[in-house]
Amino acid sequence: MESCIFCQIAGNEIPTAFILEDDLAVSFKDIEPRAPVHFLVIPRRHVASLNEARDPALLGHLLDFARQTAEKIGLEQYRLVINTGRDSGQAVFHLHLHVLGGRKLGWPPG
Asked: What single-letter DSSP state applies at residue 89?
């Protein structure tokens, strides 16, 4: 999707320092971090939100990719967040996983 900023990032149209990348996904630091460590994992293919995700293999890959990225940077404890829909806080309508860590995270989160 041409106007989607995450599609542009995943397609290397917007220069971004990837933490990790493969044929299906990329991870990179969030530009508005909510924790000392905050990175995003996105699929290269456009999927608007978790509600539109119909590929269980891709979803499993994104979870494992988040784990691999955390392992690469030495992050052993973290939280995964997927906002789905405007009222949940989803601001970019391209499926993405927030990975947060580097401090004790409170509960409930919101």
From this structure: T
Give the tens place of pLDDT for each residue, 14-49: 999 999 999 999 999 999 999 999 999 999 999 999
Q: How far apart are CA 93 and CA 101, in angstroms?
A: 23
Strands annotated E in the chain: 18-21, 25-29, 37-43, 78-81, 97-101
Domains of the chain and CATH, by start: 5-101 (3.30.428.10)
**In sequence order, what are the residues at sequence separation of 6 or more whose Cβ sits closer than 8 angstroms to the Cβ of residue 90?**
49, 83, 84
Name the residue among 90, 110, 10, 79 with its Cα closest to residue 50.
Answer: 90
Sole residue written with tokens 């924790």: 35
By annotation, the residues acting in catalysis are 96
**pLDDT digits over 52-74, tens only?**
999 999 999 999 999 999 999 99
